[in-house]
Design a protein that fits this description.
Distance between the termini of chain A: 14 Å
Oligomer: heterodimer
Structural class of chain B: alpha+beta
Largest sheet of chain A: none
Low-confidence stretches of chain B: none
Strand content of chain A: under 5%
Radius of gyration of chain B: 14 Å
Mean pLDDT of chain A: 93
Chain lengths: ~450, ~110
């Protein structure tokens, strides 16, 4: 089979993910977690995991179930497993949040919730890894974008392993000397493997292909792209393997992280070069909103990399760390995620609704499912609000930060409404909307044979 | 010189295939250059060779069956076989002048 099919549960992942993003932004508006609380406070941990697992990881998993088959031109190993994986991750995340709320004193203590969170989240991500891993294995040898995804999946395995070990610690389990030391010093490894390896490195790999597809640019498989892959893989290996070894032997973790940071910076510089090539060499002169907004998100990544380098050079990373991570999570990853969701939801909805009647009756275009001028202003508001919020964090202007977070919430809610309109075909002209043989798509899943 | 019955059928199938659009580009697959060949066997059996803009495209199966359905709607066609080819891989240069003009692509 050359053509990949639709993923049945990808929309369920997307809906859950957007709900968590809205919830996280609402918490920030209410002043829950950082910057109102300390960076390592239980309240902040609630917020961080709503964003990292609830929003970004579910978004990435849903997108990969749809796009790994496109990358490798093979069907997904199982179109059924994503549902139990989603339920496990959602219940595991619920247990984890309940655990953090216990630590913060909002709920009565009960160590078993952390144990439940470990088991449920571990099992959920294991199913995701099994399904995507089997799909990739069937396509061996892998092309370059798929190799990026493979390293991204290895990174999520490392992230979840660290996370499970930390969570077991909260449950009073796994108390050996090495594990105690890992929990005391290993938070940067958990965090960098997740945000840098799983989310950023995977997004880099997938974006190479998606940007080329959507802008009709030549696919990049040259030396620069290969070195982006090698250097990124090396940086992540230094963080995960080098970091664990440094902790095990009592070595200096800051030296390991500095080395990884320099290699990672070189990787990002090459990626920036590739992205400029993709935009410059595109055949399509007028690009769609998703590609333009992806460009803005890429600019936020470049800004975050430059600012982090400057902060490291000046020795003020600790002071501005919260603001920098915020910019990566919301400017780069969330900005790219919202931009690509805007396209993917329209594309998947078109395939589900109009694909079966193609050739039998006139059909609308994917572009007819969206109204870009209406969505454009919300995307600009979103990015402007993120940058304002980042500045507020850097300046420790906590109250104004909440106003900026409210603007982010408003923009995200408006973009989410656009997703719903797309899914309900609200923007399609009546004459083409539901020709004979079609039916209105459901909001939360896709009608497709597995 | 008038066209042979096979040539006339090929032309009608080409017209019918204009109904099938590439969903991403929003343009018909004939002018996009996605139809590599249409041939007629036994006077009524159509063989279509086509491609997609990218290998592994999620729309591939729909495009294939859409081309089959569109060609089957032509009077005089008894059966349609649609095969995919990525040799050569599609490039935007394969678009018709009309499609290139639509997308603002230089026609060189």
């Amino acid at each position: 089979m050359i053509g990949a099919t639709l993923s049945r549960w990808t929309l369920s992942y997307f809906a859950s993910a957007v709900a968590f993003l809205l919830a996280a932004e609402a918490l920030m508006v209410l002043g829950f977690g950082y910057p109102g609380s300390a960076l390592r406070s239980p309240e902040t941990l609630v917020l961080v995991h709503c964003v990292a697992i609830g929003w970004l990881s579910l978004l990435m998993c849903g997108a990969l179930f749809q796009f790994v088959p496109v990358l490798v031109a093979k069907p997904i190993h199982s179109n059924t497993l994503p549902l139990p994986a989603l339920l496990l991750i959602l219940t595991g995340l619920g247990a984890l949040i309940a655990g953090f709320l216990q630590l913060a004193g909002y709920l009565p203590p009960n160590a078993s919730v952390f144990m439940a969170a470990s088991v449920l989240l571990g099992a959920g991500f294991l199913l995701v890894l099994w399904n995507l891993g089997r799909t990739l294995a069937a396509a061996w040898p892998l092309n370059l974008p798929a190799r990026f995804v493979t390293i991204g999946l290895a990174s999520v395995a490392a992230t979840v392993t660290f996370g499970v070990l930390f969570t077991l610690g909260f449950a009073g389990e796994a108390q050996g000397p090495f594990l105690l030391e890992l929990r005391a010093r290993g938070l940067p490894l958990h965090f960098i493997a997740g945000l840098g390896g799983w989310l950023t490195f995977t997004a880099i790999g997938v974006s190479h292909r998606l940007l080329a597809m959507f802008m009709l640019s030549p696919e990049l498989e040259g030396a620069s792209t290969r070195w982006t892959f090698y250097l990124g893989t090396l940086a992540l290996a230094i963080v995960v393997i080098g970091g664990v070894v440094a902790i095990a032997v009592g070595g200096r973790l800051d030296v390991v992280l500095l080395g990884a940071g320099l290699v990672g910076l070189a990787c990002l510089a090459l990626y920036a070069r590739d992205v400029v090539q993709l935009y410059r060499k595109r055949v399509r002169p007028v690009i769609e909103l998703n590609s333009r907004m992806a460009g803005v998100a890429l600019g936020q990544l470049a800004a975050a990399a430059l600012l982090t380098s400057a902060a490291a050079a000046l020795g003020v990373v600790d002071r501005f760390g919260g603001a920098l991570v915020f910019l990566v999570a919301f400017g780069w990853l969330s900005g790219l995620g919202l931009a690509k969701l805007y396209k993917i939801i329209a594309f998947v909805t078109w395939l589900e609704c109009y694909g079966p009647v193609l050739g039998k009756t006139p059909t609308p275009r994917v572009q007819d499912l969206v109204v870009e001028p209406r969505a454009r202003r919300w995307f600009w508001l979103y990015f402007a609000a993120v940058d304002a919020a980042t500045l507020c964090l850097a300046l420790e202007a906590t109250l104004i930060f909440r106003v900026a977070a409210a603007a982010m919430l408003l923009a995200t809610a408006a973009i989410a409404l656009e997703f719903i309109r797309t899914r309900r075909l609200s923007n399609v002209k009546a004459a083409l909307r539901l020709p004979t043989g079609t039916r209105l798509p459901r909001l939360l899943f896709t009608f497709v044979a597995s | 010189m008038s066209a042979t019955p096979e040539e006339a059928l090929v032309e009608q199938i080409g017209e019918a295939l204009h109904l099938v659009i590439d969903p991403e580009l929003g343009y018909n697959i004939v002018d996009l250059g996605l139809i590599y060949d249409v041939a007629i066997d036994n006077g009524c059996d159509a063989r279509i060779t086509m491609t997609t803009t990218t290998r592994g495209c999620p729309a591939t199966n729909y495009l294939q069956s859409g081309a089959r359905d569109a060609a089957s709607s032509v009077d005089g066609v008894d059966s349609v076989e649609v095969s995919l080819s990525y040799d050569p891989p599609w490039t935007p240069k394969m678009m018709s002048p009309a499609a290139k003009a639509h997308f603002g692509i230089d026609d060189d």
